[in-house]
What we know:
The complex is a heterodimer of chains A (173) and B (356). Chain A has 173 residues and is an all-alpha fold.
Amino acid sequence: MRKAKDANAIYWDLGLCVFTVLVALIVQAAPTRLLDGVNIMPTWPLIAIFLWAGLRPSFMPPIVVFAIGLTQDLLTGAPMGVWAMSYLIALAAFRFRGEDGMPRDLPPVLLRFLFMLLLAHTVAYLVGSWALGQMADLMPLIVEATATILMFPLLAFLALRRRRSGRSGFIGG
Amino acid sequence: MASRRSSRQESDESAGFSPTLFIVLLVISTVLTIFDRPADRSDAFGSFRAGFTDIVAPILELAAQPIRGVKGIGPYFRNQGDLARENAEMREELIAARGWVELAERQRDQIEIYEAALNVETPEQRPLIRAWTVADSSGPFVHARLIGSGRNVGIANGYPVVNDYGLVGRIFETGRRSARILLLTDINSRIPVMADRSNARAIMVGDNSDYPRLDYVGRIPDIVEGDRIVTSGDDGVLPRGLPIGEAVPTRDGGWRIQLFSSQAPVDFVYVWPFDRIVGPEADVAKVPDMPVENSAAEPESDPVSDSVSDSGLVADVGAEPAGDASGDVPLEARPSGSGENARTDGETTTVPEDGE
Lengths: 173, 356
């Protein structure tokens, strides 16, 4: 009985994971600048990758991270491989290791995400500049990173809250 | 040490993170980045990108609908107080516009008479193609917009894109049902322009700022603040006279452009199906004495056997001084590997403006 409930929880989480990643990618590319005053956009796919890699590491193997990055490259018109590579490197460096996965407290999660964000954007900037043949515009990346840092705590809080309330769906939950 | 490493590896693999796969994907990413560089992107990569956007364009179009639905709410409430003044201004503008319409119609009639007298065949202008933007990618690497129409409605690479106010950019990636516009502000954008008042030539260079700068303006440019900047058509890729913006001086003595098209967010656009002007080699062949920079294109001994009107047009073109007007900003002088034309078409041509 409990096994069946666990299986259900996994499918629900898988569906939620796919949904949130797709929404993150679409919102990242959507013409939100049409809205009055909305000129900044957090790096939604990175937030999705980080949180799901912490909640359900098996949902975020390298191939999925690569696919997300590549899709973002194609949607935004960036040279292929730029975001794919940066997400892969950032996740490899700062993913949650061990059986317990993501800790239950917010501060260490925020700190780890901050490092991951900085690494991802640095790699993207360097690789993208190399691909363009000239230094890319740094300001949009800084603005995007700032918006991501400001937006992340709320989503991380919701994810941790869900994790605490989950019965056995999440690793260590 | 070894056992610690292996236990860590096992832990990684149990969590779904395979180091081998990670390295393989890293290599693939590197290879993709190398071969998808905008400067030397192959047709296969371009087709793949266009095919991908074809698939996702309907989804993005769907996602853009709610945004489009609420985009006017902010300006609506903000402008309520100004409605009376705005209404009065628009009435005045409408009266002034009537005068311009009459003038345009008179001039059109006059041009028709001249064309009939000179036996000039003006190519028929195709109607503009209307399209909605479905994706907005103004990140650090590219300033572009994706539109939900492509080859299925006749859009092709290089076509200029305008909105209600002026030139927005050019098509640089075309799929069957989608196309990508390279905005004027993009770091790869290079557009030959001129001041409408003085015909002073320059190249407008995007640098990801909201105000593209003017390069190659000459030592003493005949440009003043507020000059209306339009396309010069010197590249033969864009038509002449498309409104771009106003000249704004910078502190360092340079010039930038305040774009007309940035008066409103780029949402609904018109694609201008402007066919690239054929290089002058074919026309040059008719006039043996015409000075030609490229000696390989010079005719051997073709006599002038065409009508007066044809030779007259070509002679005018040839009579232009090399350093003036169209020749002041040689396209060959562009920074290598950064030209938009080189990116879209792979070649640049110096085409006289009368060719349009």
